[in-house]
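Our platform keeps sequence and structure together, in a single record for each protein. Such a record has a labelled line for the sequence and another for the backbone structure tokens. Nothing more is needed to write down the fold, since each code stands for a local backbone conformation. For reference, a complete record is included directly beneath this paragraph:
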Amino acid sequence: MNSCFNCAAMITSICAVLMLNGCATTITSNNISFPVKTVPEGASVSAFSKGLHQTVRCGKSPCTMNLRQTHDYMVTIKKNGYETQHIKVKSENSVEGDSGSLVGNAIAGGAIGLFVDAGSGADDRLFPGSLNLKLKPSMPNMDAKEEQSK
């Protein structure tokens, strides 16, 4: 009788863990690799998240930053002699994340796992998922040209 009770308690515990577990939340991190390439190479790259009050620096392009997929960013790309670029990168719910979350939760996470994943941002992605930019040469300062001609 006692071993039957222990067996039932064990099965109940395992089922509770599986039902309360968000599959994508436990399998994936909310951090995602965000590659940046520029032509020409060697541009300074950084990303600021207003929500995190944090700037992530990448160094010189090409490079890869580790960003939180649950936050929006403003990516800034600078290189002497070229226009500074500011690109919005948005965190959005994705079909890819939803389908992975749905399948994972159907197998192991249970219905509650879908809500856990949605709440934790485990099914979010960054859009765009990478940057590949051709930098524009900056226009020479017209005042400087006028000064040189005098």
The longest strand covers residues 31-39. The helical segments are 2-20, 23-27, 95-120, 142-149. The chain has one domain: 2-138. Residues 71 and 117 are 15 Å apart (CA to CA).
